[in-house]
C-alpha cells in the first residue's frame, strides 16, 4: 500500500500540491490525469522520494519513503527529461540501471530495444526525441520495480512505437504484476490500460476511482441533431459535438434501459462515457456547453 498523508509541496509562493491524502493499493496500473500545472509531476516526485514534501509524508507499506534506500531502489521514476549522461551509449545507460536495481532484467531490456528497433550502440546525444523516450520506457519497464512511474515519458514516440509500448506494458504487467503510475495527456489512447484513475486539479485530488466505475458515470447519445437534442431534454449535458447535422451529446448519469430502447427505435445510438469527456468536464470551467 502506498499512502500520501497530507502532502503539500510549495515552490516559494506557489502551492503545487495542496494537502493531498491518497491511498493507492499496490499492483495496479494507475492513470494520473490533470491539466497543465495541476501538480502531477510534483506529486509524482514526492511519491518517488525525489522531493521531500513541504508538509506531510509518503508511506510505502507503512514505512516513510523519503531517503529510504530500499524503497528508492524499488522505485523507477521516468520523466520526459531523462537524467542520462549524453556521452554514454544506450547500452551503457542500461548497464548503469542494471547496477542500481536488483529487479533489473537485462535480457528483457535488450528484447525491448529490438522491438523498438533501437541500436544499443547509439550515443544518448545522437538520439532523436522519440528515441530518447524509447530509452526512458525501456528503463522503466525493464527495471521491474515494485513502483514504476512514467511521467509523460513517451510523448516523443510515434503512434507505432506507442502502440508497441502499450502492448508490452500490459503483457509485462500481467506476467510481473507491480504498481505502475502513468501520467499522460493522451487520455483516450491509454484509458484501456488504467485500472484506476486519479484526476488532479489545482494541486488537489479531484477524483480517485476505478476506471470502470467512471465509465458508468455517463453515456453518449449520437444521431440527427434535432432528435438528439429532444432526447437530452431533462438530462444534464456534459459535452457536445456536432458535425454536418449529426450531434453527439454526453449525458450525466445512467439512463433507464426503457429510455435507451425508445431512443434506439428513434434511430439514436448510445455508448459509454469516454474518460476524456469526463476529464474535460470535471477540470474545465471555461468550456461552455451549448444546447
Ligand atoms: N521547480 C519549480 N519552481 C517553481 N514552481 C514550480 C516548479 N515546478 C513546478 N512548479 C509550479 O508548480 C505547479 C505544478 O507544476 P507541475 O509540474 O507539478 O504540474 P504538472 O501537472 O506536472 O504540469 P504539466 O502537465 O504541464 O507537466 C505549476 O504552477 C508550476 O509552475
UniProtKB/TrEMBL annotation:
UniProt-listed Gene3D superfamilies: P-loop containing nucleotide triphosphate hydrolases (3.40.50.300)
Kindly give the InterPro entries that the UniProt entry links to this protein. AAA+_ATPase (IPR003593), ABC_transporter-like_ATP-bd (IPR003439), P-loop_NTPase (IPR027417)
Tell me where in this chain the ABC transporter domain is found: 2-227
Please provide the record's keywords in A-Z order: ATP-binding, Nucleotide-binding
Q: In Gene Ontology terms, what is one molecular function of this protein?
A: ATP binding
Q: Per its UniProt record, what CDD domains does this chain match? A: ABC_DR_subfamily_A
Q: Which PROSITE patterns match?
A: ABC_TRANSPORTER_2 (PS50893)
Which Pfam families does the record cross-reference, listed alphabetically? ABC_tran (PF00005)
Write down what this protein is called: ABC transporter ATP-binding protein
Organism field:
Paractinoplanes aksuensis
Amino acid at each position: 500500500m502506498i499512502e500520501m498523508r497530507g502532502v503539500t509541496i510549495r515552490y516559494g509562493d506557489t502551492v503545487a500540491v495542496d494537502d493531498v491524502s491518497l491511498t493507492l493499493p499496490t499492483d495496479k496500473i494507475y492513470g494520473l490525469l490533470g491539466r497543465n500545472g495541476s501538480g502531477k509531476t510534483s506529486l509524482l516526485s514526492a511519491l518517488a522520494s525525489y522531493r521531500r514534501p513541504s508538509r506531510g509524508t509518503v508511506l510505502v507499506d507503512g514505512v516513510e519513503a523519503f531517503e529510504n534506500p530500499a524503497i528508492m531502489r524499488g522505485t523507477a521514476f521516468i520523466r520526459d527529461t531523462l537524467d542520462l549522461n549524453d556521452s554514454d551509449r544506450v547500452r551503457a545507460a542500461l548497464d548503469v540501471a542494471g547496477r542500481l536495481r536488483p529487479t533489473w532484467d537485462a535480457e528483457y531490456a535488450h528484447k525491448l530495444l529490438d522491438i523498438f528497433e533501437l541500436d544499443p550502440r547509439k550515443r544518448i546525444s545522437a538520439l532523436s526525441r522519440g528515441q530518447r523516450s524509447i530509452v526512458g520506457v525501456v528503463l522503466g519497464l525493464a527495471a521491474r520495480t515494485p513502483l514504476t512511474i512514467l511521467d509523460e515519458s513517451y510523448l516523443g514516440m510515434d503512434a507505432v512505437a506507442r502502440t508497441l509500448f502499450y502492448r508490452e506494458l500490459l503483457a509485462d504487467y500481467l506476467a510481473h504484476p507491480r504498481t505502475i503510475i502513468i501520467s499522460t495527456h493522451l487520455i483516450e489512447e491509454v484509458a484501456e490500460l488504467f485500472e484506476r484513475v486519479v484526476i488532479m486539479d489545482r494541486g488537489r485530488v479531484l477524483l480517485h476511482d476505478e476506471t470502470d466505475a467512471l465509465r458508468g458515470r455517463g453515456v453518449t447519445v449520437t444521431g440527427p441533431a434535432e432528435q438528439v437534442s429532444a432526447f437530452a431534454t431533462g438530462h444534464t449535458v456534459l459535452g457536445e459535438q456536432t458535425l454536418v447535422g449529426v450531434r453527439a451529446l454526453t449525458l450525466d448519469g445512467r439512463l433507464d434501459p426503457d429510455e435507451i430502447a425508445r431512443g434506439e427505435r428513434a434511430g439514436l445510438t448510445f455508448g459509454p462515457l469516454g474518460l476524456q469527456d469526463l476529464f474535460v468536464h470535471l477540470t474545465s470551467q471555461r468550456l461552455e456547453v451549448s444546447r
